[in-house]
Structures are given as structure tokens and as C-alpha cells.
Amino acid sequence: MLEGKFEEASLLKKVVESIKDSVQLCNFVCSEHGITVQAVDDSRVLLVSLLIGNEVFSDYRCDRNITLGVDLKSFAKIIRCGGNDDYLTLIAEDSPDSVTLVFEDKNSDRISEYSLKLMEIDNEFLKIDDMDYDSVIKMPSIDFQKICRDLSTLSESLQILITKDSIKFMAEGETGNGSVILKPRTDIDKPEQSITVKLNNAVNSTFGLKYIADIVKGTSLSNQIVIKISNRTPALFEYKLQSGYLRFYLAPKFED
Amino acid sequence: TKKQQNIFSFFSKL
User: Fold this and answer.
1) Do A233 and B9 touch (CB under 8 A)?
2) B10 and A234: CB-CB below 8 Å?
3) Cβ atoms of residues A190 and A207 within 8 Å
4) pLDDT, tens digit, for every residue of A241-251?
């Protein structure tokens, strides 16, 4: 049986809102370690990988592995019914055909209970090895979101160039071009404002902005985004959770 | 021209 209680419903709300436009049907795999999701978008360009570690929950038990096949659009509708500050408990039997969501208002005795019918979802699971990337950058997630939104007004593609002392975002379109250059900086008082670059090799990679527009929906999950890039391989965009992560692997664009 | 690559070209299925 699964019973996982979030101190605040807002975390699961943010997670679902962050991925529901990238993938619609996905399996939430629950184990003693927490909940994981891996799913690929319909165009097979973007892979979503989520881990909500058991330490995120104020109470968590899952005796044996349970798979919840969820339609995220329906899940999002139900989850919006709860208040951000409510306790949220997910409950499912061992071989469930539904999952129950219980919202408890902390300021009153109100308890709201919803159940979502589950689906049999047959998805392919990809093996993702840890790899050494040419460059790893860390920057404020909100700045990355703004840069990508600004440059998406000009082009469908975002070019990212990384050297040891700068990160350059570029977009070239029919109506004009744009670029934003960032330099590494350490902010001791506000570490979340810092920008760091770790470089093994210079990077020049290009990505579809329509996918990046979906990725930056994770911005509210973390003050910082970690971007790991190697030339001619998928980039990893990561928002860290208190325990776990939301990762997006995005295939680049390049000449064959 | 640059072509959008497919994620399945980089990761193998389990």
C-alpha cells in the first residue's frame, strides 16, 4: 500500500504543472525510496525524469512497488481543487485501479477527498547512464526562463555557446537576431543568484525553443537550474527538489 | 540546416 503525505500540496501541484504540457500519460512508480516518473513527449525529442524522494514527504510508506498510470491533464484538474498550503496525502492499494488524494486544510477541519481512475500505460523505459558533460552551468532559474522567453520571440531555435568565462544564448530569426551573454559570478549574500560554469570543452549546441518553453515551466520548483551540455548529445536541464529532482533531457538540433 | 534529433537515437531502451 502507498501512503504519502506532503506537508504542502503546492509541491505536487508545481511538479504536475511543470510536466503536464510535455507528457500526458505517465506511470508514477512508487517504491520505498519515493516516487519516480520517466516519460518521453509525443515527438520523441524531450524526456522527463522525476524523482520525489521519500524525504520530501512528512509521512511515507510504500511496502511494495506500485505503478500508478496517470493522465496528467486529469490529475492536474483534481490537484487544483486543493489549497497550496493543505496537507496532501496520496493513497493507493497494492494493485490499484484508482489513487485517492486527501487534502486537509490546516486552518479548519475541512477534509476534501478525490479519487482519480488509473490507466494501463505501456511506456518504453530508457536507460540513462551518468555521463561526463562538456560543460555544467548553474544559474538562477528565473533568469534562464526570461532569456528563453525573450529569445523565443525571434526564433524557433536557441543556440547556447559556453566558454570558460561566458555563457552566450543566441537566437537568429527572419525579423532579427538576439543574444544574451552571462559571466560567472558568485553572490555570497544571495547564493541563488550565483552563476557558475564548469568547463571541460567549449560547447556550441542548438535546441528547439518550443521544448525549452516547456522545460522552463519547472522554474517555480527551484531557485537555480543546472544545465549539463555536451556537443551533439542531449542536454540535461535539472531543477533540484529538497530530495530528488525534475530533469529534462532534450535532444539537440544539428546537421547530420 | 540543422535537424531536430530524436532522443531515442541517444538512449537505449531497457
Assistant:
1) no
2) yes
3) no
4) 999 999 999 99
- Asked casually if ipTM beats, i.e. exceeds, 0.90, the reply is yes
CB A44 within 8 A of CB B7: yes
List the single best residue of B9, B11, B12 to mutate versus A (max A Cβ within 10 A): B11
A62 at the B interface (CB within 8 A)? no
Sign for the CA dihedral angle at A48, A54, A57, A62 comes to positive
pLDDT > 90? residue A129: no
Nearest to B6 among A45, A128, A233 (CB): A45
In this predicted model, what pLDDT tens digit does every residue of A152-199 receive, in sequence order?
999 999 999 999 899 999 999 999 999 999 999 999 999 999 999 999
Residues of chain B where predicted confidence (pLDDT) is lower than 70:
none
Q: Smallest CA–CA separation between A45 and chain B, in Å? A: 5
Q: Is the CB of B5 less than 8 angstroms away from the CB of A40?
A: no
Does A235 contact B at CB distance below 8 Å? no
How far is the C-alpha of A127 from the C-alpha of A107, rounded, in Å?
45
Helices (H) and strands (E) in chain B, counts: 0, 2
Does the pLDDT of residue A124 top 90, yes or no? no
Check: CB of residue A222 under 8 Å from CB of residue A239: yes
**Sign, Cα dihedral of A238, A248, A4, A10:** positive
